[in-house]
Specification:
Elements lengths: L40 H55 L4 E3 L12 E3 L31 H4 L2 E3 L5 E2 L4 E5 L4 E5 L2 E2 L32 E7 L8 H4 L8 E7 L10 H6 L12 E7 L5 E10 L12 E6 L5 E3 L1 E2 L4 E8 L2 E7 L1 H4 L3 E6 L1 E4 L5 E6 L4 E4 L5 E4 L6 E6 L4 E4 L14 H18 L20 E2 L5 E3 L4 E9 L16 E9 L6 E4 L3 E2 L13 E10 L2 E8 L3 E8 H7 L1 E2 L10 E3 L11 E2 L18 E10 L2 E8 L3 E8 H7 L1 E2 L16
Parallel strand pairs: 4-29, 11-19
Antiparallel strand pairs: 1-2, 3-34, 5-6, 7-32, 8-9, 9-10, 10-11, 11-14, 12-13, 15-16, 16-17, 17-20, 18-19, 21-22, 22-23, 24-26, 25-26, 26-27, 27-28, 28-33, 30-31, 31-32, 35-39, 36-37, 37-38
Length: 689
C-alpha cells in the first residue's frame, strides 16, 4: 500500500514554531560601581559595602525578573503553538472523519458492525504481501524458473503467451526528480476485531517471536463507481460523503495465503499457521479516489422472511426497537464471491450461499445503507428482497440500457444471455409459485446444457464434438461502451483446467484473463476478444502471481477503467487501466465464431516477440566537452560484462572508435514499460515548447 490507511496530514509552520529565546548575556547588570570621592575611608568602605549589597540585590532582582519574563514568554508561546496545532487538527479531522477503522459496536446476537475513526495508525497488513517463489508464474526468464509442461503443451488465445498489462500510472515531480507510480492499491480491511497481532496464537514458534500476518486479508473484490454514477439513484449517492468514490466488496473466507510452504518460508513471509479462517464474512468498503478505505461494514442479512432451504424468519430475542417492538435478527453470512451491480437505480449484490440455495444458484439482493451523523456505517440486505438466478457460477449481470431488463451472461463461450426473472412486486408481476420456479430453472438448465459447446459437427457419420471451452466469466457486472454499442467483460482460464490438489494452490492456479465484448442488443454475440493477460505482481514487475482473479470492472470515465482483483486467494487490490490500451488489445471476431475457435497451440519456433520497455533518446558526452556530444555517434556494440555492468562500443564522427562501460541499474531506470500492442512509433511525440 502506497500510503497509510489514516492519511493524517498534520503539519506545523516551521516559522511559527521557531521559538526565540533571548540571549541572557545581553541582560546581565553592569559590574561598574560608582561611589563618592569625599568622606572617610571607613565611610567610603561602608558605602562600598552597602553599594555592593544594593548592587547584589539589584542583580538578583533583575535575574529573577528575567527568568520570570522567559517563563511567561515560553508559556504564551506554547499556548500559541498548541492552539495553532489544535486548530489545524480539528479542521483536518472535520474533513477526514472516520478514515480508519475502530470498532463501534452495533450489537446483535451474532456480530458487530465496524465504522472508521481517527485514532489508529497504519496497519502492517495493509501493505502488499510477499510470497514464496512457487506462488509466482515464472513469466520472466530472469527468475530462472522451470516452466511446467501444462503451460507449454497447451493452447492460448491466438496462440500467444500471456501479456503483462501495465496499469495506469501517475507522475509526480519535485525540484530534484520526477517519479512515476502505478495507481495500484491494496484494499485494506481493518481486522482488529479478530486479529490481535500480539496474541500468542499469532506468533511463530521461534526465538525471534515473528508476528504472523493475518490468516488472509480478503479475496475476490468487486468494484462499483459511486461518484457521479447516474446508474445509482441520487438519494443513495447522497448517503455518502463527497470524497467517497468507489464501493467494493471483499470476502473474508477460507484462503490460500499459505500453501505447501516450508518452515523457513513460513517465517520469512510471516505466514499464519492456522488452518481455518479467523472469520467468515463479506465486507463492504467505501473508498476514495485513490482506493484508500474511508468506511467499512460487514454486510448483514436481516432475517425478515424465509431464506433458502433451512432458514426461517427470525426475531432477535435480546433487542427491541425504540417502540419496544421486536426486531428481526441480523445474521452474518459468508456471501461467497460477492459482486456489486446496479439495477433500477439501486445497488445490488450477487453471491453464492451454497448450503442454503444450492451451489448452482446466484443469490441477488438490493443493499440498504445507513450512515449516522456520528459516522456509524451499516450495510444490510433483507431476506424478503431475495432473488435467485440459475444456473452456473461466475455469471455477469447486465443492466440492459435499452429495456431496463436485468439480464445475465451465464456463459461466455459461447455467449449465453438470459433474462433474470424477478419475483418481487417491484416489477409489477405476480410472485411465482414453487412449480413455476422449478419449471423456469429446468428450462434454463436445459438451455445452458445445450449451449455448453457440445454440439456435433455437420457430418452425421462423425461422433466428434466441438472441443470444450475452459473460458469462464469473471467480473460480476458488464460495462457498457456506448460509443461502440458493446458490453465489455472479463473471462479467465486456469491451467491445467482441473482443480486437483497440487503444489501451487488448493484448487485452480496459473490464471490468465482476457477482455471480451458482446453486442449490446439481441442477438447477443461475441464481437471482440483480447489475448490472455496478467497484471504485474507487486514484488516482481516482470512476473505475476499464480492466482490473480480479476473480479471487478467499472468504467470510471471515457479514458479509464477501474479493476478490482484478488491475489493468491489471500489479498485484494484495485487499479486503473487506460481504456485506449484495452481497446487496442481487443481484436474483431469473425461472425459466428466463439472464444474456443481462437484457441491455438503456441509454436515453439515462433514465440510472440514484442516490445516490452523503451528508454528516452540518449547521447554520450564527448571527450572535449562533457556537456555536449558529437554530431555523429554510432552505438554499434553492446555486451553484458557481469550482473552490474554493460560494455558499449561506439563510433565518433565516422572517424574514430571508443568503448566504455555503463551501469545496468542506470540503464534499467531509463527503461519504461510499453503498452501491449504498441511500438516505438507510437511513442514519438512533438516536444512541447
Amino acid at each position: 500500500m502506497n500510503g497509510p490507511l489514516n492519511k493524517r496530514r498534520s503539519w506545523i509552520d516551521p516559522q511559527r514554531n521557531h521559538t526565540f529565546f533571548p540571549n541572557l548575556n545581553n541582560h546581565r547588570p553592569s559590574s561598574t560601581i560608582s561611589n563618592g570621592t569625599t568622606g572617610s575611608s571607613i565611610v567610603a568602605a561602608s558605602a562600598v559595602s552597602n553599594n555592593k549589597r544594593i548592587d547584589l540585590a539589584k542583580v538578583m532582582t533583575r535575574g529573577l525578573f528575567i527568568v520570570f519574563l522567559i517563563y511567561v514568554f515560553a508559556v504564551l508561546r506554547f499556548q500559541s503553538v498548541f492552539h495553532h496545532q489544535s486548530k489545524n487538527e480539528n479542521h483536518h479531522n472535520d474533513q477526514t472523519n472516520n478514515r480508519v477503522v475502530t470498532t463501534t459496536t452495533t450489537t446483535t446476537s451474532t456480530t458487530t458492525t465496524t465504522a472508521r475513526s481517527k485514532t489508529k495508525t497504519r496497519m502492517d497488513y495493509c501493505n502488499f504481501r510477499r510470497y514464496p517463489p512457487h506462488r509466482y508464474y515464472g513469466l520472466s526468464s530472469n527468475r530462472n524458473k522451470v516452466v511446467p509442461d501444462f503451460l507449454q503443451n497447451t493452447e492460448y488465445i491466438y496462440g500467444q503467451l500471456p501479456i503483462i498489462l501495465s496499469p495506469k500510472t501517475t507522475t509526480t515531480s519535485s525540484s530534484s526528480s520526477m517519479e512515476t507510480q502505478t495507481t495500484t492499491q491494496k484494499l485494506c480491511v481493518d481486522q482488529s476485531e479478530w486479529y490481535p497481532p500480539f496474541n500468542n496464537n499469532n506468533k511463530t514458534n521461534n526465538n525471534n517471536h515473528i508476528i504472523q500476518l493475518p490468516f488472509a486479508d480478503g479475496t475476490n473484490p468487486s468494484i462499483l463507481k459511486l461518484f457521479n454514477n447516474e446508474r445509482i439513484d441520487v438519494t443513495i449517492r447522497n448517503v455518502f460523503p463527497p470524497q467517497a468514490t468507489y464501493l467494493t466488496t471483499i470476502c473474508m473466507t477460507n484462503s490460500q495465503c499459505a500453501w505447501k510452504d516450508t518452515l523457513q518460508e513460513q517465517q520469512e513471509y510471516r505466514l499464519a499457521t492456522q488452518d481455518k479462517p479467523s472469520t467468515v464474512r463479506t465486507i463492504l468498503l467505501v473508498l476514495d479516489e485513490h482506493f484508500e478505505t474511508l468506511y467499512e461494514s460487514t454486510i448483514l442479512t436481516v432475517m425478515d422472511a424465509p431464506f433458502g432451504k433451512r432458514k426461517k424468519a427470525q426475531y432477535d430475542d435480546n433487542e427491541n426497537n425504540n417502540n419496544g417492538q421486536k426486531i428481526y435478527h441480523r445474521s452474518m453470512l459468508a456471501m461467497d464471491d460477492a459482486r456489486l451491480f446496479t439495477y433500477q437505480g439501486q445497488i445490488w449484490v450477487s453471491y453464492r450461499e451454497g448450503k442454503l440455495f444450492g451451489y448452482d444458484k446466484q443469490v441477488l439482493n438490493p443493499i440498504h445503507f445507513e450512515m449516522s451523523p456520528t459516522g456509524n456505517f451499516q450495510v444490510r440486505v433483507h431476506a424478503s428482497d431475495t432473488e435467485t438466478l440459475c444456473c452456473g457460477r461466475n455469471m455477469a449481470l447486465l443492466d440492459n440500457v435499452y429495456t431496463n431488463q436485468l439480464q445475465a451472461v451465464t456463459w461466455v463461450d459461447p455467449v449465453t444471455v438470459v433474462n433474470v426473472e424477478m419475483t418481487q412486486s417491484r416489477h409489477q408481476q405476480q410472485p411465482q409459485s414453487q412449480q413455476q420456479q422449478n419449471q423456469q430453472n429446468q428450462q434454463q438448465q436445459q438451455q445452458q446444457q445445450q449451449r455448453r459447446l457440445t454440439e456435433k459437427t455437420d457430418s452425421k457419420k462423425s461422433n466428434n464434438k466441438k472441443k470444450k471451452s475452459h473460458f469462464h466469466g469473471t467480473n460480476g457486472f458488464m460495462v457498457h461502451l456506448s460509443k461502440t454499442h458493446e458490453y465489455l467483460g472479463i473471462g479467465h482460464f486456469h491451467r491445467p483446467p482441473g482443480r486437483e490438489t497440487n503444489e501451487y494452490a488448493r484448487f485452480g492456479h496459473h490464471y490468465t484473463h482476457a477482455f471480451f465484448t458482446i453486442s449490446d442488443a439481441p442477438p447477443f454475440h461475441l464481437k471482440r476478444l483480447s489475448p490472455e493477460l496478467v497484471l504485474p505482481s507487486h514484488s516482481y514487475r516482470d512476473d505475476a502471481e499464480v492466482i490473480q482473479f480479476w473480479s471487478g470492472l467499472e468504467l470510471v470515465d471515457d479514458e479509464t477503467l477501474a479493476l478490482a482483483y484478488g491475489i493468491n486467494d489471500c489479498e485484494g487490490a484495485a487499479t486503473t487501466l487506460e481504456l485506449d490500451a484495452v481497446q487496442r488489445l481487443l481484436k474483431d471476431v469473425d461472425p459466428e465464431k466463439e472464444v474456443v475457435d481462437y484457441m491455438m497451440t503456441m509454436s515453439p519456433d515462433a514465440p510472440p516477440f514484442h516490445l516490452k520497455r523503451l528508454s528516452s533518446e540518449l547521447v554520450l558526452p564527448s571527450h572535449s566537452y562533457r556537456d555536449d556530444a558529437e554530431v555523429i555517434q554510432f552505438w554499434s556494440g553492446l555486451e553484458l560484462v557481469d550482473d552490474e555492468t554493460l560494455a558499449l562500443a561506439y563510433g565518433i564522427n565516422d572517424c574514430e572508435g571508443a568503448a566504455t562501460t555503463l551501469e545496468i541499474d542506470a540503464v534499467q531506470r531509463l527503461l519504461k514499460d510499453v503498452d501491449p500492442g504498441k511500438d516505438v512509433v507510437d511513442y514519438m511525440m512533438t516536444m512541447s515548447p
